[in-house]
Amino acid sequence: MLRDQSSDRAKREANKVFKPDKTQKPMNDYAKEQRSFHENRERLKAERLAREAKSGSRSE
Question: For the region Disordered, what residue ranges are annotated (predicted)?
């Protein structure tokens, strides 16, 4: 009996040590759409700023 308890304790300790740090919930449809929207907006903003910088250096 005592031997079983010690192995159970060892298993619990091992599970604590090797447990993933942060578990993420699966993304729902709304979160996926929001993430996609924000990524696309940032990409378009970067492209616009690059175009403006390029055209701004030509006109000066």
Answer: 1-60
